[in-house]
Amino acid sequence: MSGAAVADAGGLGTIEIKAMKDAGYDEEFSVGITAASSTIGPIIPPSLPMVIYGVMASVSVGQLFVAGLVPGLLMGLVLMAMITIISRRRGYTRDAVFSLPVLGHTFKRAFLSLLTPVIIVGGIMSGAFTPTEAAIAAVVYALVLGA
Length: 147
Description:
Blueprint: H1 5-22, H2 27-38, H3 48-57, H4 61-90, H5 100-126, H6 131-146
Helix pairs in contact: 1-2, 4-5, 5-6
Domain TRAP C4-dicarboxylate transport system permease DctM subunit: 1-146
Pfam families: DctM
Transmembrane segments: 64-86, 118-144
């Protein structure tokens, strides 16, 4: 959410860990998943460490964002595969069975929210925004969606 690993782990970690423990997951497994997943935040845009590095090193923040997409998605896919394998071995139950119609419905509901990183990265890469202006545009867009 924030693009900072410690903030993601601290902010969402307590909620995630409690939900996983309530669902029957081991505490160690829940903490491990939360710690591992929080490291993906700084890789996938928008990423606070990338903005800081880009400004300090005079490197294009937009190019850093684009460079983080594939590694971040690969990290997420590998983490999902690992969790699937471990969960099956330990006999953890699932909340719901995968369903394409449910996925499609959920995607439709989340589509406008999912455009936020597109606005940030696309705006920077197209030259429409500076990184600061892209952040402002994303905040305004989120406020409009929230209203």
